[in-house]
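Complex record, two chains
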Amino acid sequence: SYTLTQPPSVSVAPGQTARITCGVNDIGSQTVNWYQQKPGQAPVLLLYDDIHRPSGIPERFSGSTSANRATLTIGGVGAGDEADYYCHMWDGSSDHPVFGGGTKLTVL
Amino acid sequence: QITLKESGPTLVKPTQTLTLTCTFSGFSLSTTGVGVGWIRQPPGKALEWLGMIYWDADKRYSPSLKSRLTITKDTSKNQVVFTMTDMDPVDTATYYCAHTDMGSVTGAFDYWGQGILVTVSS
């Protein structure tokens, strides 16, 4: 089954670009979703199917994938982006979804 | 507008059974492709998928917890009921229900309830 590996933390200066990775042994044909969770709040869907933004999500949130990694890119980071970010995908081999361990984004 | 809300006990004793209800609005769980999932998050820890139920009553459970979980739906009441048996202090967590639609967000959870913190303690 899949294990999604995220760095525990990422730090970035205001206005810069943050990149949060999600490692997986073999993405294959599966797609990745990304969530943002602020303290005390429920997660919010940022991206689905690797690159698609739900209504209301700014364009500065974008996604990409390679054979064994998905990346969430946040452009023009501000204090309001400080949160935990989770990747999520469907494990086709075991037929259930899996979440990554989460990455805490700190804006310096 | 889609909303979901979890309800149930916030304190359960070890070995007891937890029953949570997810009451939703803005969608029907009889619509093709729609599902409701359950996800939990221990304090300070990551999200963990527990299980889900689909419009056609198909169910999926976390392999590690499958023997303890049951998810059912009452379409007429717009509710999904989640049951976890033999609760242990390690099951202390915020429990969320969330909406998905295989036809639009392909399995992503696009709407979440506010969550309910369940503490397991004697």
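Note: DSSP finds no helices and eleven strands in chain B.
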